[in-house]
Amino acid sequence: MLGIGDRMNYKKYESGEKICSREEYFVFQEAKILSLIDDGKISLARKIVMENLSIYPNEVRFLKILSILNVRQKNYLEAINILEGIDGDFDHHLLDLLYVKVHDQQKMKEVYQKYYSGAFFSDQDVYQYNDAQFLDYQVHLYFKKIYDNCFVLDWGKLVYICKQLYSYDNRLAVGHIEVHHQDKKEVNKGIFDPAISIYTLFRQVQRYINLNMDRGLFDGTMFDRYCFYYPNCGRNRKDKETNYFEVVSLVNTSHIITMYPMSSQGYRYYDLCYLDDINSKSLVKVKNGLERFQGRYGNH
Questions:
Q1: Centroid of chain to Cα 293
Q2: What angle (nearest 5°) sits at the alpha carbon of residue 47, between those of residues 42 and 50?
Q3: Selection from 114, 113, 70, 116 nearest residue 94 by Cα
């Protein structure tokens, strides 16, 4: 098994003593670096990436990881420069979405023209898409919504996320959260304490995002993510009590798609935001909590 210093072991392979193949080395390095990123060890991950790029400056997989690191650290323009400089074919989703994230209108128009040189996917087929196809559908839908005023879909047949991309509705979002993350538990997601008013929580978070949109973590999909601290807000996916919940919103907006309690593990990427008591058992508590929140962040 190769260790942290396995770059030297791979040099042995290059000089004739085969420790692993070149491809095996690259695959292992990629997995190790991505694992470090997931663990929040960004500095160490960047160090290993740069060591590899000093030897293999044109290796696409390391360049892509470097761009991901820059996205994690919110260096979006640097990530764009790296991706634009890659020669050859690679998944352009991240680059296309970064143009959205930084509001590059010219590039967004170019992306739109690229996507709509062909036919638009049928929304009736969305249930059959794999993850990559589903993301592609969402990106297409996003740009079609922006640039084609005559664009019409059968809203009733769309899956929830696509409905919100196509025509955002606060009430639909609150209902989705209540059904999936309060009334019953969704697999691999947390559930809120039933005493919490989802509507009140939703409105507080939405106000906060409107004033602090730069705090969101862009993760390379159509969405931004935020982490909030609220004591005993519910139970995480392992059915343990937690003080944290995650919020997912449409990129560059306060259009909340979903939110659910999660453990604190992995939240080192996020700015933790503190909310006041919104326990629905006490109307006075809710009112005072809202007033305190508005006094701190405004009435937007």
A1: 26
A2: 120
A3: 70
Give CA 56 to chain center in angstroms: 29
Do 232 and 83 touch, CB atoms closer than 8 A? no
Please tell me whether residue 248 adopts helix, strand or coil conformation. strand
Q: Residue 127: what pLDDT?
A: 74
Q: What's the rounded Cα separation, in Å, for the pair 266 and 94? A: 21
pLDDT at site 216: 87
**pLDDT tens-digit map of 101-113:** 999 999 999 988 8
Q: pLDDT averaged over consecutive 10-residue blocks of the chain (300 residues)?
A: 44 53 89 87 93 92 93 93 85 89 93 74 73 85 86 86 94 94 78 92 93 86 90 88 92 95 68 61 32 42
Distance CA 180, CA 188 (A): 11
Provide the β-strand partners of residue 54: none
Q: Give phi and psi for 152, each to the nearest 5.
A: -135, 135
- Helix, strand or coil for residue 73? coil
Fold for 6-90, please state it. 1.25.40
Q: Which amino acid is at 184?
A: K
Q: Write down the pLDDT at residue 215.
A: 85
Locate all alpha helices (DSSP H) within 73-221, ordered by sequence.
Answer: 76-84, 93-101, 105-115, 131-147, 160-166, 170-178, 198-211
**Domain locations in the chain as residue ranges:** 6-90, 91-167, 170-297
Residues with Cβ < 8 Å from 231, sequence gap 6 or more? 243
* Amino acid residing at 198: I
Going by DSSP bridges, is the β-strand pair 223-235/217-218 parallel, antiparallel, or unpaired? antiparallel
Question: Residue 257: which region, alpha, beta or left (left: phi > 0; alpha: psi -120 to 50)?
Answer: alpha
Do residues 222 and 138 touch, judged by C-beta distance below 8 A?
yes
For residue range 233-277, list pLDDT tens digits in order.
998 888 889 989 999 999 999 999 999 998 876 555 556 677 765
Residues 269 and 91: their CA atoms lie apart, in Å, by: 24
